Structures are given as C-alpha cells and as structure tokens.
Amino acid sequence: MQGSANLNLMIKAARKAGRSLVKDFREVENLQVSTKGPGDFVSRADREAERLIKEELLGGRPTYGWLGEETGGAAGADPTRRWIVDPLDGTTNFLHGMPHWAVSIALEHKGEIVSAVVYDPAKDEMFWAEKGAGCWLNDNRRLRVSARRAMHEAVFATGVPFGAKSTLPAMLKDLGRLMPACAGVRRWGAAALDLAYVAAGRFDGYWERELSAWDVAAGVLLVREAGGLVEGLRAGTDPLDGALIAANDALFKPLADTLRA
C-alpha cells in the first residue's frame, strides 16, 4: 500500500480501533450502553475506539487539532491541520448485532480534506484516499464511481431521520419525488459506508439532510477521488455543514434537480 506517512498513521489507527470494536461486537449483548437521545446511542465500545484513535493520531502528530464525535473539538499548535474522526459510524447497527458499521478518519489541511480512511472491520474493507492520488480499497484495488447514466437504473442511498427530528417531513418529500424515478433507495444507517459505497460504484448516489462533519468528512474525499461529485444539498453550501448530495457525474444533476425541486 503506497501512501503518505499521515495516511499510514490513519490506517494503523483505524485497524487498532477496529480490532477493539470487533471484540466488543462479538459480545454486543454485554455492552454497557447509555442513551444520548432517541435512537442515538453511545456505548463503551464507541468511547474506547475514539480513545485508541486519538492516542494513535495525536501520539504521532501532537500538534494537529482534533474533532471527534465523542470528545468534541480541540485546537492544535498547528492551526492548519485537524483530524476529524467518527470512531463508530453506524452505532445503532453495531448495538443491534448488524455487521454494517465503520471507523471514519479524515485529515483536514487549511479547510480541505486531504486524506481519508473508512474502515469496515466486520468485512475487513479499508477504503482510503489522498487528494490527487485516487481512491482505493485495501492494498491495490483502484475504485471508480459507477458508470450508470439513467435514473431508472440507479440505486441511491440515504439516511431517514429517527425520533422526532425536524428534517423528517423534508426527507419524506425527497423519497416521494425520487423513488418513482429510480431503481431503489437504501437506508443502511452508516453515512461513511454509504459514501464509500458510492466511491466503489455499489451505490450510484447518496444524499442526506442532517449530518455532522465527522459523519462525512472522509467519505467526501473518497467519492471525489473516485471520480464522483459532492456538493451541499443547497447549491453553494459546504457538504461538511450537514447536508449533501454525492453521485457520479452523469447522475449528479438529475439527482440534485430532483432533491432541490
């Protein structure tokens, strides 16, 4: 695997956290779980994974800033670089024994994501990318977004809001407009993996309305380096602000037009 020193550090951290998570996943019924909100759980496994990642990344690059789902943000001595980490994307899947969850790590430099890792420990799939160097799976498989050009052949992914989130009515309208025009919509509950699957051509596109930067930072670079397009759901907005659309170049416009109607 060819990559920068930073990327190799990220992969090492993701694998270390992945080993810890897999061990807990095998005994998911014994996890100590607390509740952050309706349908939004945090587990001991989640917190331990972030601790391991933080220890590895900041141990190797102590001057970098930090933004993690569980421990929040902290400025570093180097104001131009920041790690953005979701230690367990797909927590609800994890806690229900469903093997579809991931570790997501991104490196931001001067406001731009330059390195990305999304690791699926249950399937041992390591998606990674660096700016200008393409998107890859494991050691040597170059990834490209799908080549489908027709909406009626396309399968898209999204996240449906849980609990009483205010974006549910808008999402239901999205589904009502899009589903008659495409081959299907999947809701798998892990934004980082949804974006990795767009990069791998498994999904033809993805959108969601209510996310955090750590959910999507790594996935955005994966899609772009695989030849796809990513924008904020509202034209001109930053995808890391919490709402985004991703797809191949042929399907991006019809998908965006449908969702922005």
UniProtKB/TrEMBL annotation:
Signal sequence residues: none
Species, as recorded: Rhodobacter calidifons
Family matches, as SUPFAM superfamilies: Carbohydrate phosphatase
Keywords for this protein: Hydrolase, Magnesium, Metal-binding
Protein name as catalogued: Inositol-1-monophosphatase
Lineage top rank: taxon: Bacteria
This protein's record includes keyword Magnesium: yes
Nucleotidyltransferase is among the record's keywords: no
Entries under InterPro entries matching the protein: IMPase, Inositol_monoP_metal-BS, Inositol_monophosphatase-like, Inositol_monophosphatase_CS, Inositol_monophosphatase_SuhB
EC number(s) on file: 3.1.3.25
Family statement drawn from the similarity comment of this UniProt entry: Belongs to the inositol monophosphatase superfamily.
Required cofactor names: Mg(2+)
Gene3D superfamilies per the UniProt record, alphabetical: 3.40.190.80, Fructose-1,6-Bisphosphatase, subunit A, domain 1
Catalytic activity: a myo-inositol phosphate + H2O = myo-inositol + phosphate
